[in-house]
Structure formats: structure tokens, C-alpha cells
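User: Please predict structures.

Assistant: First:
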Amino acid sequence: MSTPSGAILLGYGGSEHSKIALRWADDLAVTLSRPLHVLVSALHVADVPGVPKEHLAGHVTEELEQLLTSAKAPETSMTTVLNPPGESLVRAAESAHLTVLGARTQGPLRSMVTGSVSQYVTRHAPGPVVVIREPHTPRTGRIVVGIDGSEHSAKALRFALEHAKETGGHVRALHVQQRGGVADEQVDRVIAHGTESAGGVRVTTDHVPGSADDELAAASREADLLVIGTRGRGPVQALLLGSVTQSVLQHAQCPVAVVH
């Protein structure tokens, strides 16, 4: 089954982290009145001898079907594939509103959302990708977005503002000042332009010195969602392509949205 147009797409692996991601995706689908579509890749368990029953793809899909009967989303659906999970999710995301992945999994389905697969999806998915981590401080209403003055961070800001508008949240635009980086005034202009059509969403702006990964991870402690762009300027340009991204995704203490 193809992904319903505008659906919340979830990559599911059967672990407790996948269940946390399922609950988050279901809650968002309810809030946005969008369908929830779940994709399971059985490729990595097809030829594994002696796999415990609870990790078999058949068990995972049966359990998922039971979980979806309790889902609150206005519409739910599921697809099981025997293709590489990263490629399958990217294809399925073409008609989705956004794609959701758990932070990590265990067992033979672990590569569904970790390592090369998550990197592949965050780099190649045509829309936003949200990697779910349990929030340190649940339900603050705050959405933190990393801003460096680039067009990619401007796109991240637009996503953050729209998400805040749809969920009743407020936005903290965070500029991490880098040596030789973009001036505060230029970042302020990007933020001012982006918030012209904020629709009443409350926005605060902070300029702080330090390293992008440390400051963004710290800010996530008091956030419902941390939003970052795929590329930036200067030292931040590797935000989704190298160590900064991996650090943010590993150490953030709330869900992280990656926006293209």
C-alpha cells in the first residue's frame, strides 16, 4: 500500500523505542487530523537463523496491527516490505507530510532507524524527518530551532513556526555564534523575515556563544521539539553531514526534526 497523501509516515522496528515513536506519530496525526501510515522492513530478518519469535517480522507486524487498533489517528494503515528500509522510507515519504523514526532499536530490525539507514533517510527524504527521543521536560510547548542565517535554517524556521501554529506551541530561535560566522544582525533579519507570517505564534530569539551541537542539545532539555536544517554556513555546514548532526541526534533530549 502506498502512503496516503499528507500522512504521518512512521518507520517501525518493533522495539520499545519504535513504540515511543508510534505514540508520538499517532498524537501528531490526531492533532493535525492527518492519516498515520506505518512502514515495516522485514529484509533484515528474512535469512537470520534462530531468531527469537518476538523479533520475527511476522510477530512485529502482528503486534503492530494490534497497536494500531488502539491508535487515535483518524485513519491508519501499514505496509510491510522486503526492500532496504532506507530506500523504502524515502520512496514512501514522497507523498507524506513528514517521516518519523525512533531513536534506536534492538534486535534484527535495529537498522531500521539507526546508523546508515537513519543517515540515508535524513539526507534523502523529500520532506522533514523527525527522530524521536523522549523529552527531558515533557510538554513545555517550546519548539527550538537552530538559526545561522542560511536559507536552510530559514526553511527550518518556517517548519518550526508552522508546527507551533498547528500544535499551539511557541518558538525559540537559537543562533549559536561561531568565530568568523554570521553577524547577529543578519540572523535577526532572517528571523524577522521568517516571522512576518507567523500567524500569532510567539517567537523569542537568543544569540549564544559556543558550539552548535552543545548549545542545541542543551536547549533541547526544555523543548518539545528541536528543529535543524540540513545545511548551514561555515562550521555549521556539516550539521546533517558529519559529527555535529550525529552529536545532536545522539544527545538531544527531545524529538529532533531535520528539515530540507
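Second:
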Amino acid sequence: MISIESGGMDRALDLLGANKHAVTANNDHQVATYSRALMKPSSEPVLCRRMPDDAAATAQQLFAVLRELDAQGVNEIWIEAPPADPEWDGVRDRLQRAAG
């Protein structure tokens, strides 16, 4: 799991799309994203999941989304770093536990 600052995920996905080694012959999903921003990757094998704008809803859904992406066999999960606001503390805590 990789945490990426807001705005950096689009650039990272563009680089991934330019990297022909990131796409397998059978178009398996190599990377998944979970972000508040709507992602439009240039690489087809990227799964994108939208993170709720509400911290409580995100905290409630986080582990289910991670399990779903893991079950789909992605190699990496890129997550947009949550805002630094106190209401997002629970989400950051869950992300640290999931990464550990």
C-alpha cells in the first residue's frame, strides 16, 4: 500500500501509463487507487475506487475496500493521503495499521 499526497496521484498514474512494463499481456489489474479525487488513468489495468468525502464514512469503508482490492489480485494499492484535519485521524490510524 502506497500513500500519495493529493494531486500527486494523477502524475503517478500518468507515469504508470507510460511504463509499458506495468501492463501485463492479459490486462490484469496491477495497481488500484483509493482517492477522494476522481482518477482517470491512462492505463487500462488500473482499478479506481472513490473515497467518500466524509471522514466517518471513509473510516467505516476502508478495510472493506482494501479487502475487495486485495481479492481482485492487484499488486499495489495507492491511497490518497487523507486531509490533516482532526476528523481524519481515525482514517490515518487505520491506514497505518493496514500498511503494517
